[in-house]
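Risk mitigation, structural track. In case the binding assays with alpha-D-galactopyranose fail to produce interpretable data, a predicted complex structure has been prepared as a fallback.
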Amino acid sequence: MKQFISRSCAMISMLLAGIVLSGSIPAASAQSSLNGYWDLRTPNPSGDGTVLHTYFHLQESSNTVVGQLIRWYHTVPVGGTLDHGTIHFVTQPPATAPGWEHRSIVFEGIFSDNKLTLDMHAGDRVTHGVATQVTEEATQPPKPLPLPALHDVPDNGLARTPPMGWNSWNKFANKIDDAAVRAMADAMVSSGMSKVGYVYINIDDTWELGRDAKGNIVANKKFPDMKALADYVHSKGLKIGIYSSPGPKTCAYYEGSFGHVQQDAATYAAWGIDYLKYDLCTDLDVYKDDAPTLQAIYQEMGDALQSIHRPIVYSLCEYGRANVWTGWGEKSGGNLWRTTGDIEDRWESMDKIGFSQIKIASYVKPGHWNDPDMLEIGNGGMTADEYRTHMSLWSMLAAPLIAGNDLRTMTDETKSILMNTEVIAIDQDLHFRPVTEVSHDGNIEVLLRPLSDGSVAVGLFNRGAETTTANLKRSMLPSAFSNGTLHMRDLWRHADLAMGGDVYTASVPKHGVVMLRISAQ
Ligand code: GLA
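Fallback model:
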């Protein structure tokens, strides 16, 4: 099941969210054999000129059609009918299938004179394509290429504090284009985000078209001139990031860097790229899924990025496989590495991901950060209290702060969360001691992180669904805080408080947080 974690990306949910059947199919005649492997080519839904390949292995018998749909080298059974050239079949996923495989996709069309044309009904979208017969090999992952011998990639000196910026995926998925990226750069400056530390404007998946005759990666029509776009972002005083996969295909099934690692690194440098998110995706189908193999895969790009003499932050996206934080992420040259599957814009997802990170918080250090995925703040699926928890928790963890919302249309509340400089200061504190849980009482979790000036950041988190009273006891604090009046700053209320006794009591709203910075007088 390992492969499926990375397959739950938002784009696929969007594609396959339901079924709409429409139109009538004219009858046809003179069919020949449907038996064999087929490649259905349909336009990618974002209208970027790229093609989605869906493969089938079909067998006909009397009026029935059975077989498999093969996508990303994974299979789902299909079954249906073939009646005088009119074909209709549906994916039949097992009830337990994860990811896109558990949703039904309907295909209907014409099979005549050995020509197969199909409408694919996926989600609320219908796309039309022509299928051609292919060999079985075309439906299989490519043979592995040799991987380099392991060595430690030297520290590139970047990302001394957790990277801060914006990424297109959470809000835009496959709808991202040149104009939107420029607009995000404009908004990052005009909103004031750049002044409080956000600097990277990162393009995620679906910018790719394919390769030119020399094997150079080429952007699709949504991105007519990457170099000009990078120049524009740089002209705003910002930096620009891009996305790829070591696999033959990315997670949205666009062109990956398989077999072109060094060449792609050189292209990114020529374009003026400053940050690369490198997403495992289909490489999981080519290579083994163990720490040495993953290290070699990521080391190959880590070495390539260092060879092109341009500082490029290296962001590993491998969903926390093979305990990346324990060492191989850093050895492969990574500045940050994903520690979990994809975040979603809802409390359960953010809560589960965020609080699962405390036990591995001790593995981070300057230049090498755990990445529990991008922020969902401002995307609408959580309450303001939940988003404050999101920002507070990521800051206590010293996690990258990569916004994932539309920066052009932020409410004042969203701005106040993303641009709370007192909370950002916790995230960006010169890191020397990790966050720990100092108390867990019912739904109240108290997290504490020592800061470089001798103060401590304390989060009183309420993971429950009712407003609850939280107690911060002096005994939960380090020994330097044992006596005297403590100065406390409430980082969301922007208020100064004092703690003279042994307990500070606060009311914490459902899924909310009271975030304090405490210093001994
Ligand atoms: C994976 C990653 C996401 C995003 C998508 C793009 O799911 O984890 O962050 O990059 O791929 O396809």
